[in-house]
Amino acid sequence: MGAITIISIIATYFASRYYIQEPEVVALIVLAVAAIIFIIGHIIVSSFDMIASASRAKSEFVSIMSHQLRTPLSIIKWQLNLIYEKHIGTENSEIKKFLDHLGEENQRMLHIINDLLELNRIEDRNLYLNPSNFSLGEVVGDLIDRRNKSLLEAESNVFIETKIPENLPDVFADKIKAESVASHIVDNAIRYSANGGKIEATLVSSGKYIKCSVTDQGIGISEKDQKMIFSKFFRAGNVFRYQTQGLGIRLYLAKAIVEAMGGKIGFRSEEGKGSVFWFTLPAAKV
Amino acid sequence: MAKKILFIEDEARLQEAMAAKLESDGYEVLSAFDGETGIKMAQEHKPDLILLDLILPKKDGFEVLEELKAKPGLPAVPILALTNLEDRRSIERCLSYGVHSYLAKANYSLDEISQKIKEALQ
């Protein structure tokens, strides 16, 4: 930039010699303007540098903290595994109930940390995907069987129905990540069906893509909140009134993961009537 | 004869829990608490399988992989990376050394890890 400024001043000086009586004055004016532009440019560049380094520092802080927290949480998890295996077995005692709670809370902390780490990886473009051909029908079917079992045990009045065609083609995607997206959408449908109602999971093929839709009759999303639903750390107003848990990043993660796998994600919703969340994944090449 | 498993991990309590689980599953467990000792023990004891953490004192997991893959006889030993690093760069770097699997410690129970070991030894 400095070299360009000097060349421009010299060029202006020689050009103005032919047309103006005092080319030195013109060159000085150009020099002054160039200096002002140079200073403004420098301020802008260093501001961007500061923003970038603050963002890097934040990202590194989240990464270090999360890794530091995952080690003690792994220790708690493994030690609990041993207590169950060596001392508790299948007995149904009060201590087992308390240990179950410890295990569940440990898992909850791990989920929060895993989500924060996933967010960091997405923002740092450092997300690992291991795609393969698999049956999304089986993944969603198994997931819903597990959820229906838990709902039944909890004596909930929510039940999930599935419509999965038998000859549904495989998808080509990361199986673990696809399962995490499906489970998040299904879990949201359960969470926001607090007053009961039917949930339906449907899978269809459109040739190039397989689409999974989850329809609920829950609280729905207000028109105002619909625009923000895939934003980071966003919690819908009608949700936050009675449900304070959660970081509000899982739909953001779901969108980023589905798009990274070559699919799309979307929803339709009406407040008080329910929502349909759907995502597509590319069909496996035959 | 019991299969030998070398666990290279600097956290004593993770070592302790893993050893208790694997010994009760019938394996002999060797513990190394840093990368340098891990490489030495791998050469001396010729384990049937290695569980390797990546963030380690003295020599990190990547250096351990690089050295183990260069030693005669050792490249055939299955290595399971057992770490809390899950970023693309670390996973791809590990896979480029031919590790058998890449497991995030926090996401696997001892039973699930034991199952992965069984699969790797088959």
**Low-confidence residue ranges of chain A:** none
Alpha-carbon distance between the two ends of chain B: 15 Å
- Write down the overall mean pLDDT of chain A: 85
Question: Which regions of chain B have little confidence, pLDDT < 50, spanning 5+ residues?
Answer: none
What is the 3D form of chain A?
Answer: elongated
Portion in beta strands of chain B: 15-25%
Which two chains form the greatest contact, residue counts included? A-B, 23 and 23 residues
Which structural class best describes the helix and strand composition of chain B? alpha/beta
| CATH topology value of chain B | Rossmann fold
> What is the CATH first-level class name of chain B?
Alpha Beta
The CATH architecture of chain B is 3-Layer(aba) Sandwich
Major beta sheet summary of chain A? 5 strands, mixed
Number of helices of chain A: 8
User: Numbering strands along the chain, what is their spatial order in the largest sheet of chain A?
Assistant: 2-4-5-7-6
Helix content class of chain A: 55-70%
Report helical residue fraction of chain B.
40-55%
Give the number of domains of chain B.
1
Question: Rg of chain B to the nearest angstrom?
Answer: 13 Å
The biggest sheet of chain B, with number of strands, parallel, antiparallel or mixed sense and barrel status, is:
5 strands, parallel
Kindly describe this structure.
- The complex is a heterodimer of chains A (286) and B (122).
- Chain A has 286 residues and is α+β, with helices and mostly antiparallel strands.
- In chain A, a hairpin with a 3-residue loop joins strand 6 and strand 7.
- The model of chain A has no long low-confidence stretch (mean pLDDT 85).
- With 122 residues, chain B is an alpha/beta fold.
- Chain B contains five helices and five strands; from the N terminus they run βαβαβαβαβα.
- Classes of the chains: A alpha+beta (286), B alpha/beta (122).
- At the A-B interface, helix 2 and helix 3 of A face helix 1 and helix 4 of B.
